[in-house]
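User: My collaborator sent over this chain with a note saying "see what the structure looks like." That's all I know about it. Can you take a look?
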Amino acid sequence: MTIRIFLLLIVALIAFAGNSLLNRAALAGVGAIDWSSFTAIRIISGALFLYLLMAAKHDVKAALPKNTNMLSAAALFIYATGFSYAYISLGAGLGALLLFASVQITLQAIGISKGIMPTWLQIIGLIFAFVGLYIFLRPALNFDGNETASLGYVMMIVAGIAWGIYSWMGRTATDASLSTAQNFIGAVPLCLLLIPFIMPASITAYGAILAILSGVITSGLGYVLWYAVLPKISVSLAATAQLSVPAIAAIGGILFLDEAITKTFLLGSGLIFTGIALTIWSNRPQKAKTHNQ
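Assistant: Without extra context I'll predict from the sequence alone. Here is the result:
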């Protein structure tokens, strides 16, 4: 992995963490906007921004989705819808654990079905990352009867599966920005399905701004970077790296919100990043061996 790809991967993961924070800030307790309006504004604003970007770079027709984009567009819509709905009922810790575990399992299952088997070092890295994620999120988990029985539980798992499919489709993208624009624009008509659930009276300026920031920056630009990275890394690394998002979000809280550094944070995040490092190490290029004849 080159330094450039590594840096793009880090920025994409930071965008994912920012996306989670924006979503929770708008939906968790403050009532700034309803989940369906947030989802629609997020997708439409991201699509509009990326369309204008592609129109300036190519032409006005370039970003229009093709038939080959529709599976990715549907996966993007399902992910965004499930993600927003789940966070009105799930705790942040349980939601993150369900999402990233589902993404990991989906990507690995698709890879194995395509004959891409993880190495032992990648499996060890995955175990380290999962144990670290559990330790990191354990204080926030609340497995009471109401929460685990909620529709939000199912919706977050569905969101994780959809994001895993979306990520897999990105491995064949030849133009990351164009493909992302086509996926977002293809998802816009699907927002019509959200109309019965939208509550206009619940939309505040604060909630709409957070949704636009999520759509344009942490989703639109973030997913462009993600699609640029995916063809350059292994399935195992793409899956394992995303387990770092809760830890990255916590680091942001420590740096910008004066949150405390705890032993749980140090142990959990240490294991997560160790697992990612092992996965990266397993993908290092092997030096050719020469033998004297």
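A starting point for your reply to your collaborator: The CA atoms of residues 216 and 232 lie 24 Å apart.
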